[in-house]
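Aim 2, interim progress. The first record below pairs a target sequence with its structure tokens.
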Amino acid sequence: MAASAMDLTTRLVASLTGEAIKTGYEFGAPTLPIRHTFDDSLADGDGADQANQVYQDSASVIADAETSYDLAGTLVDEFGGTITFTKIKGIVLLNKSTTASVLQIGGGTGLDGTNAFDTWITSTAADGSEGVLVRAGGLFVLWAPDATAYAVAAGTGDILVIKEKSTLAAVFELSIIGVV
């Protein structure tokens, strides 16, 4: 079955706020406001500032195990259609674990680089084990709204892996936004 027809609009909002206060002052302690916000939207389509497909998963992975996502041909969307991404515009991975679990998101079967979706990683390790560690309660966000985004090469560069790197099981949520 081909990818389901859908109209897709997405919005990514991230905000970091806070305040740093210098201690040791009796009156008028100096403060530093912390304010960083990011707000971007993608309309339906396949060009710059556009995406037309979403994949979402809530899963668990046992200690030292992995979950692989074939971005070009085996994912199924919420409407029952097979997804064959050609570009990835965004990935959001939330490690929902309450233990000290650590997830690694990277490319290739066994994180060995085989058929790795790793166009978003600037260098590759000799053993292909490149990726980003996401600790318990942590969040990983990759966002590329431009027309190029991150290429997916069916059969040779389309495997995204999430591996549990500690001795504990992990629970996570994953969203992938892209173009088919």
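The second target in this work package is listed in the same format:
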Amino acid sequence: MRGALLALALFVIAACGDGSSLGLVGPSTGIATQEPLATEEPLATVESSAPPDLAVTVTKEAGTVTRGSAATLVIQTAKKAGCRIVVQYASGSSTAKGLADKTADSSGTVTWKWTVGRNTHKGEVPIVISCSLGDQSGNVETSFTVK
């Protein structure tokens, strides 16, 4: 008899999927409710093997730029890191000459210089810079003002 009860209990747990909860009928309402099973402590803790982030720092802001003038932005990161800049105007991401992907020089410096269009909307323009080297990556956000 005891073996039959154990088999029935195992069948009920298996029928509930992963055994994380059992469908029980409430005593006074007759409506099925979900009651969580007790959880166990994990057997082992897995340490994250993610590499540390790559440092990316703006060392020269573009500041305030008049429409039709040049903007310059300089960052510092690891030498030979590949970097991408996205200048997000109200009309969309800029494709201006000078905003191509670049590789940091031997001191980790990257400089972008581009011309702000004469018809660009005035105001704050967000910039996102992303760099990577091997399996490390990092980014920095900044902005400049068009006047």
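The two ends are 86 Å apart (CA to CA). This observation will shape the mutagenesis plan for the next reporting period.
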